[in-house]
């Protein structure tokens, strides 16, 4: 064949042919065997249907002749079954134009994609099974966390010493912050990524219902960029937010002092980093409290979580307390 050379393709894999409008002839990249005739006829009907070629055409040349003469927009790729309905072909039509924009030839490259589609179907089934298992796992984790939280609350209700009660309350809040992540995953039907803005809203709503804090005098504001975090990052961030907000509620506003807690979460596309900031306008941290070498469990936990997400912590004590974490 002149100006047309392809690696031979068997009928089982697909076929390649080229229509030359000047000679009104189709050149094949292989010898056409009698048992291949059905495949070529199916190509004829599929191309005719998808490209809107009207009339009853019994030869491929007449289909391509009409396509070339009418300069019809060629639909590509075309996917269709063979006559048995068991094999799937994917056909690409590639027109060649002369200097005047007229179609001078059309190359048809067809491939039997049956095996590939079967693999895709198998992968889809496995993916659905994986999602079902993950959803069931997250549901069980969520339920177990709720049970642990309920047991701790029942025990805390029997404690009359404020210091011990506060200790239990802190544990309950930490567990609840993780449970909120699981609940958010379940609600969004996403087992891998968490909408951090929606989560912060959930956390603030939960804190507002906590009778241990006077939420009529302390307002919590938040602002978060539209962003989703992987679960391995979202859980440490959730615990950090819970720890810093709880610390502010417990220590920043003594004797019924009014105040505000702010939570900011942002994404810096220039530096490709996230920033989490929790601040309050309370009395501020005492000078003897060293959050970089903490002696309290709260700040020790925050430092450990910051290291876990490979972040850095900067503390400011002016006009209250401000903790800024970049990761």
Describe the structure.
By secondary structure, the chain is α+β, with helices and mostly antiparallel strands. The chain has 2 domains: 14-112, Beta-Lactamase (2-Layer Sandwich), CATH 3.30.450; 134-326, Heat Shock Protein 90, CATH 3.30.565. The protein has 7 helices and 12 strands. The strands form 3 sheets. The protein has a 5-stranded antiparallel sheet, with helices on both faces. A 5-stranded mixed sheet has the order 7-9-10-12-11, covered by helices on one side. A two-stranded antiparallel sheet has the order 6-8. A hairpin with a 6-residue loop joins strand 3 (78-81) and strand 4. Residues 1-12 have low confidence and may be disordered.
Element order: H for helix, E for strand: EEHHEEEHHEHEEHEEHEE
How many H/I helical runs? 7
Domain count: the total is: 2
- Mean of residue pLDDT? 77
Based on the structure given, which CATH architecture of the largest domain is correct? Answer: 2-Layer Sandwich
The largest sheet has its strands arranged as 2-1-5-4-3
Strand content: 15-25%
CATH superfamily of the largest domain: Histidine kinase-like ATPase, C-terminal domain
End-to-end C-alpha gap = 62 Å
What oligomeric state is this? single chain
Question: Number of DSSP strands?
Answer: 12
Helix content: 40-55%
Structural class: alpha+beta
List keywords for this structure.
Heat Shock Protein 90, 12 strands, alpha+beta, five-stranded mixed sheet, Beta-Lactamase, five-stranded antiparallel sheet, 7 helices, elongated, 327 residues
Topology of helices and strands:
Blueprint: E1 14-20, E2 25-28, H1 37-50, H2 60-70, E3 78-81, E4 88-97, E5 103-112, H3 114-156, H4 162-188, E6 193-195, H5 196-208, E7 218-224, E8 228-230, H6 231-251, E9 259-268, E10 273-280, H7 297-308, E11 312-316, E12 321-326
Parallel strand pairs: 7-9
Antiparallel strand pairs: 1-2, 1-5, 3-4, 4-5, 6-8, 9-10, 10-12, 11-12
Helix pairs in contact: 3-4, 4-5, 4-6, 5-6, 6-7
């Amino acid at each position: 064949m002149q100006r047309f050379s392809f690696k031979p393709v068997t009928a089982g894999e697909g076929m390649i042919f080229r229509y030359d409008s000047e000679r009104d002839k189709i050149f094949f990249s292989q010898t056409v065997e009698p048992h291949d005739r059905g495949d070529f006829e199916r190509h004829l009907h599929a191309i005719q249907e998808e490209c809107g070629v009207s009339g009853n055409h019994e030869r491929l040349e007449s289909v391509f002749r009409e396509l070339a003469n009418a300069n019809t927009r060629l639909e590509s790729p075309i996917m269709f079954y063979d006559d048995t309905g068991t094999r799937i072909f994917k056909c690409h039509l590639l027109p060649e134009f002369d200097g005047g924009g007229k179609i001078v030839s059309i190359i048809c490259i067809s491939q039997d994609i049956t095996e590939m589609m079967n693999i895709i179907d198998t992968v889809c089934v496995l993916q659905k099974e994986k999602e079902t298992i993950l959803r069931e796992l997250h549901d069980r984790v969520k339920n177990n966390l709720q049970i642990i939280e309920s047991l701790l609350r029942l025990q805390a209700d029997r404690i009359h010493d404020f210091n011990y009660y506060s200790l239990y309350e802190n544990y309950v809040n930490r567990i609840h912050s993780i449970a909120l992540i699981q609940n958010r995953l379940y609600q969004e039907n996403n087992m891998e990524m968490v909408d951090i803005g929606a989560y912060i809203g959930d956390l603030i709503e939960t804190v507002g219902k906590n009778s241990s804090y006077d939420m009529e005098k302390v307002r919590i504001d938040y602002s978060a960029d539209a962003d989703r975090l992987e679960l391995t990052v979202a859980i440490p961030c959730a615990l950090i937010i819970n720890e810093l907000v709880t610390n502010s509620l417990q220590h920043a506003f003594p004797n019924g002092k009014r105040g505000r807690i702010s939570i900011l979460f942002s994404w810096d596309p220039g530096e490709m980093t996230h920033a989490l900031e929790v601040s309050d306008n309370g009395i501020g941290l005492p000078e003897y409290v060293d959050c970089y070498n903490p002696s309290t469990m709260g700040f020790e936990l925050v430092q450990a979580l910051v290291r876990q997400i490979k972040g850095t912590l900067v503390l400011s004590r002016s006009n209250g307390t401000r903790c800024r974490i970049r990761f």
